[in-house]
Amino acid sequence: MLLGLAIFFLVLILVLAIPVSLSFKTCWKQTMEGHVKLQWAYGLVSIRHNLLATKPKSAKLKKPKRNTRRVESSSGRNFMAALRQPPFRRRLIKFVSDLWHTLEKSDVRVSLRIGLDDPAATGQLWAVIGPITGMLFGYREVSLVVEPVFHESCFEVDSSGSIRVIPLKIVSIMLAMIVSPVVWKELRPPQRLE
After folding, report:
1. Of 191, 189, 180, 190, which is closest to residue 89 (Cα–Cα)?
2. pLDDT in tens, 93-152
3. Helix %, strand %, coil % for the chain, to 5?
């Protein structure tokens, strides 16, 4: 039993240690367009997927969106409150920085326009994204442009490039973020006094 479990984890670690390459060209405004190509084990496995999706325009689908937004805003309230805390912001920036340095990037171009319903929430989000874009400014292989939008809610992306990563490194960085005491402290739901 223990030998089988040890072999399973060894195989899992070996599989996660094999590099994964991703090349992409995407654009999301009113519709999602572009393509993504995923390669594993130096091209032994290769998958290409063309992207084409549209935002629903039906009036019937708008009502559930309002309910979903309320659920998202109540669950997102803890995240937005956590963003106000300097220790959480520092930990989040370290997490993004660690992920960034793990990726091997080639000619990555990303242009974003982001706006939330509340201009103050957009400002708080920009307080996190702004320093991250500043950290990425000096890289020749990467161009990142982020435009905050304060007068409307929007999310638009135009991106292209290729990325190579070892999944085992990503898993270790994510586990370190998940078990971080700062994250647990700031994202836990508020306790009700009875």
Report:
1. 180
2. 899 889 988 989 888 898 989 888 888 888 888 888 887 777 766 677 788 888 888 888
3. 50, 30, 20
Nearest to 109, CA basis, from 139, 89, 151:
139
10 Å Cβ neighbour count for 180?
Answer: 17
| H/E segment holding residue 138 | none
The model's pTM is 0.58
Beta bridge partners of 143: 109
Q: Is the dihedral of CA 74, 86, 91, 145 positive or negative?
A: positive
Measured CA to CA, the distance from residue 41 to residue 52 in angstroms comes to 27
* H-helix or E-strand spanning residue 45: strand 45-54
Mind listing the pLDDT tens digit for each residue in 157-192? 999 999 999 999 999 999 998 888 888 877 776 555
Strands (E) located in 72-171: 104-115, 142-148, 154-165
Collect all residues with Cβ–Cβ distance below 8 Å to 109 and sequence separation of at least 6: 142, 143, 158, 159, 160, 161
Residue 191 has which token pair? 């306790």
Going by C-alpha positions, the residue among 144, 149, 158, 80 that lies closest to residue 114 is 149
